[in-house]
Structure formats: structure tokens, C-alpha cells
Amino acid sequence: MNFSIMFDKEKCKGCTNCMKRCPTQAIRIKEGKAYIDSKRCIHCGECVKICPHEAYSAQSVESHKEKNYKCKIAIPSTTIYGQFPKGTEICKVQNAILKLGFDYVYDESWASELVSKAIKRRIEEKQGFKPLISTNCPSTVRLIKIRYPSLMEHLISLEAPMEIASKLARVRAKEIFNLEDKDIGVFYISPCPAKLLSVTDPIGPKKSCIDWVVPLNTIYGDLYREVKRENDTCYSNPSLKGIRWAVSGGQSKSADLINYIAVNGMENIINIFDEIENGKLSDVDFVETLACVGGCVGGTFNIENPFIASNSINDIIYNTNEDALSNEDLDKFEELYENGVFDLTVTEDKENKDKISIKEAVRRFEKIKEIVALLPGLDCGSCGAPTCFAHAEDIYENQSKLYDCVVLRAKSKDNL
Amino acid sequence: MVMDSLIKRYSYTITRNDFVTAGKSSSDIKGNLKAIGIDAKTIRKIAIISYEAEMNIVIHSMGGKLHCDIYEEKIVIVCEDEGPGIPDIDKAMTEGFSTAPENVRELGFGAGMGLPNIKRYSDEFKISSSDNGTIIVVTVLI
């Protein structure tokens, strides 16, 4: 089971909201209930956000407290810093995480700052090839694999900060606690289901270095209480460059890029990918794409409204004393980059489509278009498919019937 | 030869100076090829070629037609317009050379990369031009 989104059939009313919202058309409604085609799902969480009946939820994760490791490391997502009221002493956040039952905290932002440097370096190395597309958001990478395979070569192919953080955290914890790898458990505190899934089902062939994922919202209550406790000690600060990654445009700003485009929200990303496919944007260095509106702060596991969270993060960036910062691993950049620690391999999805001749494929397409011509073109979704075209495809594949279309059914009744 | 026979032709009429619907035809071609299941690399090339060809008709011609011919082993884009023709084809094939008027450039078009780009992404490129119009036949092998 490597599906990060749980679906409660009882709660589903078959209302079609999720189906219409799904960017890869992975959802159909059959006999009044939604079905997700796991092969097409990119785990963006749009269905979780839109469902009015709360039929979708994040995978239930066993509590970190029940896991047995000699050392439990927590890696909080950069978005965590946007979840508290403005003015909260953010140096307390890591300490509060420790109190929830962790032995060591490694801030994702420290790794984000390192990956920003890698982005800058990679762009310099590939000057002849533009634009490069970010690989931090697993949903957008999966979208490229499923809908835009021709853009695969544009991927900047750098590991996400959460992965870099987990590697560096292990190294540090081994030194500090004098432990072996197997005694250490790495827990990522995640802002979204897509990152949760990138651990169990990575986008590349490499295995994730993270052992467990804790959805941010499941620990927020306890965390908030700890952060608000007075007279608490400070642990250490996040990287101010690194926490920019929580907000759309932050990767580029943190890497000191000028010629970049930051796109967020699935619809906008689809439009931009279409443009790149048409050969446009070949004069732009970097296209930063994040599936959620506003960037990672828009992920479904966050508590705060994404725009308020962005504002809080800005506040931290401008009002935190830089002297208090600690990012000891920053000096290791050259060594890490040379050793390929940042390199991500994204494998192409081999679709198990039966190989048919182009003649046969054209015939199929023309046949489907004939069916489309019979349908009303409302894309209302009442038949259980997101568009009339998708319905026609389903009819062609014998997955659905022409008279599942409510408009056609109503018309045929009128004629009786 | 049987393998060489045309399977399907999709044709579009392109209107001069119509920047509102410009890009629709090439986008439709791309959609069709995706739905048919043509491989991504070929689609990418055809998308660029047909988009540039369509914009050329909109910007430089009196109007014309864009065809996408599908064969078992290749896709051919045929672009024919109603004039006024290209006086110096060699010059038009030079990167950065543009005869697009200022108002078109203000829209972000007419950078002088149209024909060079079409040729760059093609496996075979034929162009002929007279006062009566220009015909471009571009082949991409699958």
C-alpha cells in the first residue's frame, strides 16, 4: 500500500467535485462513488482540498511515539514557521518539536539553502539548455511524467531538501549519539500528501532516506502548546534563506536568480508546461513549479491560510537576527555537490499501453471523436467522467455507456 | 509503397492578423497527436513547428492553411499561404532576421526565429515561395 490519500466510501456522495478538479483526470464516479486510478494519480491533494464531505483524508500514520529507535530525528518542513501567530519566538519551534518525543531536530531549511546553491550551480552548468524546471514538488514532477513526458529533459534533477536534510541529519546524529544507521529513525514533518508519498514511492529509482512521515496537522496542537510556553529555551534558528522555500518563488530568490518564473497552482502549471512544450520560455533560466496555491504553505497538512503563512514567513525573514543563525553544513556544499549527493534521477514511466500501429490509433481516436459528437459537450460530469471526451473514451473502452449521459437520457425520455 | 500512405490529414484555416485565436490550430494538432498516442519527442517537435508555422501565416501572410498529415512512420506539417511571398528565402532563414512590424513585435512575436526554428526541429524541410504564396513542407520522422 503506497497510496497517501485515504478514501472513505461511506462519506462519498458521488458529487463529482473531486473528479472535475483532478488535474490528470484520474477520478471517475461509478455507481455514486468516486474511484481513483492510482496509475494516473500524482498525489497533489486537490481532491482532499475540494471534497465537501471530507471523504478524502491523508493516510493515517502511526504515531512516531510507537516507533522504536535509539534516536528519532525530526525534520520539520519549512512551512512549519508560517503556522504560528506573528511574533512567535521561532527559535522555540525546534525545541518544542524535541519535546514531542524526538531526540534530534534537523531543520529542512538548512538543506533548502544548500539545494538553492545547487540550483544556481546547475543553471550555470547548463547555460545552453533552457528553461530548467524545479524538481522539489513531487506532484509537478509526476505531472510531467504522466502528461508532459517531452519535458523530462528540462527537469533540473536535484533532490528535494527533505532528502538532503535526512542524509545530513543521519551523519550528524551518528556523530553526536555514537550510533549505527539502523538505530536512527528519520521522521519528516510534512506539509502535503505528495511529499508523504515521495517517501514510500520515490519519483526516481533511489530509495528515500526518510523512514516515516508525520503530517504537520497531526502534531500541531501539541506543538502550539509547547511553543507558547513561556521561559522556554531556544534551540536554534532555521536558515532565513532556506525558509523562503515554503513560499512560491522562494527557491529562486534563495538561489539569487533573476531570470526565473515561479508558478503555483495546478491550472497555472499546466498552462506554463504547454508553453514550454511549444518551445517558449527558452530564454528563461528556471521555472519553479509548486502544485499548491501559494507554494508549499498551501499544502493540505498545513493549518494556517497559505497567504497568512507567507506573510508570517516574510516577517521572520526580515525580523530575525542573522547572528543567531546556525547552518553548519553550509561549508560542506562543494564536497556534497562534487560527490553527486544532490543528483536526482527521474525515471520515465513506461505506460503499459498495448503497442498499436498509428493507423489503429488514429482509427480509435476518430471513433472516439464520433462518440464525442453525439454528446452534449457540457462537460458536466454527471455521467461519472470529468469531460465528454473522457466519457467517450470510457465508452470506447467499454467502461461506460452512452446513456450514462444524463442529457442524452433526458432527451430520449422527451421523445417517448 | 503501402507504408507510405497517408493515414489522416487534419486541416485548419488561418486568418491574417488574428491574434485572438492564433495558436489554436497548433494546440489542436498537439492535442490530437497526444490523444492518438504519438511519442512525446515527436509531439514536442511538431508542437514547435506547427506553432511557428501558424504564427508565420498570422503575421506575414494574407491568410492560409495549415495541414497535419499523419503517416505510419512520420508526421508532415504542410503550410500554404496566399501571399505575398518571401522575396529572399536565405535571408528569412537567418536567425534574428525579421520583417515583422513593430505592433506585432510589441505583442512578443516576430523575433526572427520562426523559420530557423521550424528547420531546426525538422528531419526534412522544403520551402518554395512566389508572389502567389509560400508553401512549406516539414517532415518529422517518428
TrEMBL record, chain A:
Residue ranges of domain 4Fe-4S ferredoxin-type in the record: 3-32, 33-61
Keyword 4Fe-4S: yes
Entry keyword annotation includes Cytoplasm: no
Pfam families: Fe_hyd_lg_C, Fer4_10, FeS
4Fe-4S domain: residues covered: 360-416
Keywords assigned by UniProt, alphabetized: 4Fe-4S, Iron, Iron-sulfur, Metal-binding
Gene3D superfamilies in the record: 3.30.70.20, Electron transport complex subunit B, putative Fe-S cluster, Fe-only Hydrogenase (Larger Subunit), Chain L, domain 3
InterPro entries named in the record: 4Fe-4S_dom (IPR007202), 4Fe4S_Fe-S-bd (IPR017896), 4Fe4S_Fe_S_CS (IPR017900), 4Fe4S_Ferredoxin_RnfB (IPR050395), Fe_hydrogenase (IPR009016), Fe_hydrogenase_lsu_C (IPR004108)
Official protein name in the record: Iron only hydrogenase large subunit-like protein
Organism listed in the record: Sedimentibacter acidaminivorans
